[in-house]
Amino acid sequence: MLTSRYSERTLLLLLAAVQFTHILDFMVMMPLGEQLMREFAIGPGKFSQIVAAYTISAGTIGLLTAPFMDRFDRRKILLFVYAGFCLGTLACALSKNFETLLIARIICGAFGGVSGATLMAIVGDIVPPQRRAAGMGIIMGAFATAAALGVPFGLYLAQKFRWEMPFFLVAGIGVIVWCLIHATLPPVRAHLNDNDTPLHHFTEFFQLLRDPNAGRALIFFSAVVMGHFAIIPLLAPYLVSNVGLPENRLFLIYMVGGICSALTAPLCGRLADRYGRLKVFAILVVIAAMVTLWISHSGPLPVWAVLVSAGMFFTFGSGRFIPGQAILSLAVPSKRRGTFMSLTSCTRDLTSGVTSSLGGWLVTRAPSGQLVGYDKLGWLAVGMSFVALWLASRVQVKETHHPHAPKSSGDGGH
Predict the structure, then answer these.
(1) In this structure, is residue 68 part of a structural domain?
(2) Neighbour-count burial for 330-355, b at 16+ CB within 10 Å, e otherwise
(3) pTM
(4) Within a domain: residue 38?
């Protein structure tokens, strides 16, 4: 049983700080696209490789470590892999060319992916199902904070000094957060069974792979990720080159979008707990689809219209991950959650990497400087979002109460 002198909310905020650095490290790369393409004399294809390197590395390493995730204290795993993530981020800041940056992103992704899966498993261990969506909302709020505060400040540092500065910032914050984890987070061992053997864990892993409900949940989440991520990697270059947003105003996109997400993410969690995860997920998918098509097909727009579009995209596009993550977390029993969340992280990262690479193939830069083919990414995103909505209705709840909390009369949801 998890015991701590700190409250559930305090621990969730600590885990949200870990997520904040993950998201900031990943997100700040994309608005740096124009600057990095100039710095290293590369095109959209190679820039997409830099973005994809992180996620493909995270997915591959996560898949290799998945059978072992439930064999150890989750606190020890988090401390080890988060330290590796911080070192990888520092390596990004010290990179001098395309090749070294690519290698640094691979290292960063290898540790960052496992770190993200571990913290999600910890959330599942410390938060009962009846508050699970709200707990996910706090963690997802880190995305909004990174977008509203971290990315604009990172872009400011990059434009004021050099592109490396945001990565120095993330590495510095990461060291502070690591120390807080070490001092605050108690051992997380409720999932362990002293009688378990390595063979038992491999058996559990392959049983999980054969579980039809777990398989549907992973495919569901893959569709959610593709439906959101298809337009993200090249969004900043598209807004600058096609929509006419001045490059020095890019920070406003992430600031406005992040503030909107920060204000609405906890609300999305509470609504999902109250009215049902599937119902709220469906509403968010439909609205996000309309916003995605508007952004990916628009011509030149005034700055205010771009900001309104960004705010809606961040609110509804990111918001659907909150009930989506709650649906996902209940697809397997508690004893398999660590392995399953690791597989979930692999699915997310590999899907993001493939989607980013796909964007590099579909989109080219015209002699005028505009990106050609970005509208195709919009249609891809919408199509996969509705596939995710259909799959969400087929994922069954396998955990109806928390092992250390009173049973509730219903699961809030689905």
Answers:
(1) yes
(2) bbbebbbbbbbbbbbbbbbbbbbbbb
(3) 0.67
(4) yes
